[in-house]
């Protein structure tokens, strides 16, 4: 059973992931049209913040977040790497660490 804290984390991660995917899509489309109009400075800063936050995570944490949220791959991609319980435990830890780094640590 998912706790309220876990539900809140999932909602927040989904929010960031949706925004990230939308901006990345506009950026890719902008290369075809006009890069200067594809993203405003705030959007570019946001993408930079997400990318810098990901750099602070382990490769495993990055893989979990990218495959589940930022650039979703097949639904059961994790089955080649983890047991079900390990996957959910590591996913929860990756989400917690990502949100902590994103919202609580200053980016240098």
Supply the key terms.
108 residues; mainly alpha; 5 helices; 75% helix; globular
How does this model look, in words?
The chain has one domain (4-104). Helices cover 75% and strands 0% of the residues. It has 5 helices and no strands. It has helices at 4-32, 35-38, 41-55, 59-70, 84-104. Helix 1 (4-32) crosses helix 5. The longest helix has 29 residues, at 4-32. The model has no long low-confidence stretch (mean pLDDT 86).
Helix content: over 70%
The pLDDT mean sits at 86
Number of domains: 1
Distance linking N and C termini: 37 Å
The secondary structure category is: mainly alpha
Number of helices: 5
The profile of the biggest β sheet is: none
Please count the beta strands (DSSP E, at least 2 residues each).
0
Radius of gyration: 15 Å
Could you give the order of the helices and strands?
HHHHH
**Poorly predicted parts:** none
Question: Which shape, going by the Cα principal axes?
Answer: globular
**What fraction of the residues are assigned to beta strands by DSSP?**
under 5%
């Amino acid at each position: 059973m998912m706790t309220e804290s876990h539900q809140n984390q999932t909602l927040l991660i989904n929010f960031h992931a949706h925004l990230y995917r939308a901006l990345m899509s506009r950026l890719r489309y902008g290369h075809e049209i006009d890069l200067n109009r594809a993203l405003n400075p705030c959007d570019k800063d946001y993408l930079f913040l997400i990318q810098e936050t990901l750099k602070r995570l382990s490769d495993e944490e990055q893989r979990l977040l990218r495959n589940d949220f930022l650039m979703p791959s097949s639904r059961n991609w994790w089955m080649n790497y983890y047991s079900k319980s390990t996957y959910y435990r590591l996913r929860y830890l990756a989400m917690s660490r990502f949100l902590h780094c994103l919202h609580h640590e200053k980016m240098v």
